[in-house]
């Protein structure tokens, strides 16, 4: 007994061969089409990057030229003149002291008599020198 799926003829109809060719072409064509579209996307990204970099370079070049042109047309500095020689001033011998001693001294010395305080103050003034 034969099922409906079994053919009785010798097979090899031209329509079957065309269906097989179309199926193989479709199976191969989808990855090829995907590869081509990916290649086009990569090329578009590269072209866009080149356009952006070229534009940035052009802007920088124009700014450089404008700045250089502005620098060349700016105010000119007069040439340096030689300063006439003059002798240095002699140092002052009576320069005021930067830090002076106190004008008066007020000590609270408990239990010390006046003669001892006078001796202490004489020693302090001798160490400092004349004021």
Low-pLDDT parts are: none
Quaternary assembly: single chain
Radius of gyration, whole Å: 54 Å
Mean of all residue-level pLDDT scores: 79
Overall strand count: 0
Largest sheet: none
C-alpha termini separation: 144 Å
Determine the number of helices (DSSP H or I, runs of at least 4 residues).
2
Shape verdict? elongated
- What structural class do helix, strand and pairing data support? mainly alpha
Helix content: 55-70%
The arrangement of helices and strands along the chain is HH
Q: In percent, how much strand structure appears in the residues?
A: under 5%
Question: Which helices and strands appear, and what pairs or packs with what?
Answer:
Elements: H1 14-72, H2 114-128
Plain-language structure description:
This protein has helices at about 15-70, 115-130. The protein has about 130 residues and is mostly helical. It has a domain at about 15-75. The longest helix has about 60 residues, at about 15-70. The protein is elongated, with a radius of gyration of 54 Å. About 0% of the residues are buried. The mean pLDDT is about 80.
């Amino acid at each position: 007994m034969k099922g409906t799926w079994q053919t009785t003829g010798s097979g090899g109809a031209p329509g079957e061969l065309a269906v097989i060719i179309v199926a193989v072409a479709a199976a191969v064509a989808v990855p090829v089409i995907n590869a081509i579209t990916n290649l086009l996307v990569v090329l578009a990204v590269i072209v866009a990057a080149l356009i952006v970099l070229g534009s940035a370079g052009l802007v920088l070049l124009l700014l450089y030229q404008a700045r250089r042109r502005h620098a060349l047309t700016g105010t000119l500095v007069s040439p340096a003149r030689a300063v006439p020689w003059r002798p240095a001033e002699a140092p002052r011998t009576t320069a005021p002291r930067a830090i002076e001693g106190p004008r008066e001294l007020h000590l609270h010395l408990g239990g010390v008599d006046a003669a001892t305080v006078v001796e202490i103050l004489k020693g302090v003034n001798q160490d400092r020198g004349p004021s």
